[in-house]
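Hey team,

Filing this mostly as a record. A colleague (T.K.) asked me to run one chain through the structure pipeline before their review meeting, and I want the input and output archived in the tracker in case anyone asks later how it was produced. No errors, nothing strange. Just documentation.

Input sequence:
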Amino acid sequence: MIIGEIKPLDVAKRVLNPETISSVRMEPFHLCGWKILDRWALNSPEKLRALESEGEVVLLGRLLEQQNLEHGILLEAMEMMNTGLSEYEILTMNKVETELM
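Output structure:
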């Protein structure tokens, strides 16, 4: 359980190496990618550690792929967000897998 205000990457910092977090703070990653990484760290910390153990490049490649997918869908669905739908609801409606597989 997380209590209080958290900043982007606060959850991921508890799971991943500091070097990986530093890499994720650089371009081409942005807030969308940071949210994804936090979600993965919260929901699947063991899988995220396993992905990191395959190599930072592997993890960053997978994250970039997911960031591009989710960000693209959300940009296209801006009007839906104005109707009160959450990011998660929009991604689910578009059949985007949000969990780390």
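Quick notes for T.K.: The mean pLDDT is 93. The radius of gyration is 14 Å.
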